[in-house]
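Protein record

Derive tokens from sequence
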Amino acid sequence: MAKIYLISPPKIELNQFSKSLKNALKSELVPVFQLRLKDYENSEIIKISRELKKICHDFNSLFILNDSYKLALEAGADGVHVGDEDGSISEIKKTSPKNFVIGASCYDSRHLAVEAAEQGADYVSFGAFFPSVTKNSKGKPTTEIIEWCAEIMDVPIVAIGGINDKNCGPLVKSGADFLAVVSYVWQHPHGEEEAIKALNNQFKS
């Protein structure tokens, strides 16, 4: 069954967001959380990371930092998520601690997915599958790429981009292992925990 991969908004206020994150994670349905902040100083990212990592571990969730391997190591993150311009996965693999998770954005590219897997990525992500208010994606994949990846590659697949409890069905049926969500959770009218539960319920149907 597919699982939920939760990503932060691009801008947060630490105290308030800590409460929101706890609300989401107390559902115990979120095995992975990624901190993805833009236009923050490195020192601020490390400070925020260390605080949010504690919350994630309290709820048995992995804490992944976006973009920077060096910052992820300094913050003690469980892993890093990299794009095609964020460094070599094989180089990160050589110098990373044991069990350090490396995820790779592959957009709508089969070539990037194969390359990432060959270099040792622990998962590959494709997107954006639907219009997204949080990120301008380089790719516009269809579910066909999930089916292809699930059939020929032995690496977990993350789908991302505008996903919610109303449109997630085809992604799950195609073989996505994780669905990454951002605004669907943080802007849900009934709160973070209800958003997570509503999405998870669709995985069972």
Remarks:
- DSSP finds nine helices and eight strands in the chain.
